[in-house]
Structure formats: C-alpha cells, structure tokens
Amino acid sequence: MNAIKILTATVIAGTMMAGAQSAMAYGKGDIFLRGGVAKVDGKSNNGNGLVAKDESGFAGSVGYMFHDKLAVALQSTEEFSTEFEDGAGNFSQMPINLMLQYYPLGGTDARVQPYAGAGLNYTHFSSESAYGQSMDIDDSYGAAAELGVDLNVNESWAVNGFARYADVKADTKINGQDVNDTELDPVTVGAGVTYRF
User: Are 42 and 83 in contact (CB under 8 A)?
Assistant: First the structure.
C-alpha cells in the first residue's frame, strides 16, 4: 500500500512539475531560434513607375533575452528574386533586421507571449535590370518595426506569427543615369515555429 501511495505521489508530483515546466516563463538568458514562411508585400509605386510583385520564401531569426522582458534579435529571409508586374525587369533583394524586442509578459508563465520590436533594416540588392537596360540599386538602410506572438506548446517549442515593416529607400541608376529612388517599404507577414533554450 505504501509503495502504491509513493508511486501515486511521484506521478502526481511529476505531472505537476511537467506542467510547470511547460508554462516556463520567457526570461533573461534565453536564446531563441525562429523559422518559417513569409510573404513580402512591397510598395505599389516604388518611385520609378515600376510595380514589384509580392514574393514568398523562408524567414529566420536568432535572438537573446538579456532581460526578462527585453531581447535583441537578428532577422533575415532568403534572397527574393522580384519581377516587376509589367514585365519591365527584375531584381533580387535580401533584407537583414537588427531588432530590440519588448515582451510585456516576459517573466510570467503566460503561454501566449506577444512582443513588439523596433530597430534597423539593411537591404542588399543585386541582379537588377529594367526595360532591358542595366539598373543599379544601392543598398538601403532604414528603420524597421514588428509585432509578433509566440503560442507556447511546451517549454521549448512555440508556434510563431509576425508582421514586420521596413523603410526601404535606395538610390537608383538606369544605364548610369540617376533616376527616382526605389522605395519599397515592404510589409512582411509570416508564420512558423520558435525554439527556445
């Protein structure tokens, strides 16, 4: 009988411990990796009379929580090859964001962990062409912002969703001649998973 009581108590304690761990709070010292699929919706009029198509691809990030409610994250996507909707040309772009993120429920056992971020965007352009002519788009630096949420499945894994905005405005030349700046100001919406350790 005593053995059964001990076994029962052990099972109950283990269940309670597992439940507590599965609701483990986000906190200082955590490292997280995020990956998923994102859709990039560029500005309809980019300043040169060219309209870029929406693109989808992989998005990922790595981050570190230096406070229960604050983290720094480095984000990027795969290189998007973007065609203009009128068939006038194309270019490739790769954005990289360095973000400071705020987690209002960090340090608590909340399973839903929303966050907001602000930081710097760097976008590299390559393989540019327009109207069958050579096109050169300078790399761009600008502000970036985001809203996101993690829905925790257990102490390590979560389902993630996010929306990001970047201020992308770059000097542009066609056949060596200055033309209007390329303004994309993309909104990126994505979903995936978060792994935290």
Answer: no
Do the Cβ atoms of 118 and 99 come closer than 8 Å? yes
The predicted model scores a pTM of: 0.77
C-alpha closest to that of 55 among 80, 37, 75, 76: 80
Sign of the CA dihedral running 8, 12, 13, 15: positive
pLDDT at 62: 97
∠ CA 128-179-50, nearest 5°, is: 60
Of 76, 42, 39, the C-alpha closest to 60 is 76
Kindly report the three-state secondary structure assignment for every residue of the chain: CHHHHHHHHHHHHHHHHHHHHHCCCCCCCCEEEEEEEEEEECCCCCCCCCCECCEEEEEEEEEEEEECCEEEEEEEECCEEEEECCCCEEEEEEEEEEEEEECCCCCCCCCEEEEEEEEEEEEEEEEEEECCEEEEECCEEEEEEEEEEEEECCCCEEEEEEEEEECCEEEEEECCEEEEEEECCCEEEEEEEEEEC
- Length of the chain in residues, anyone? 197
Question: Which pLDDT score is estimated for 86?
Answer: 65
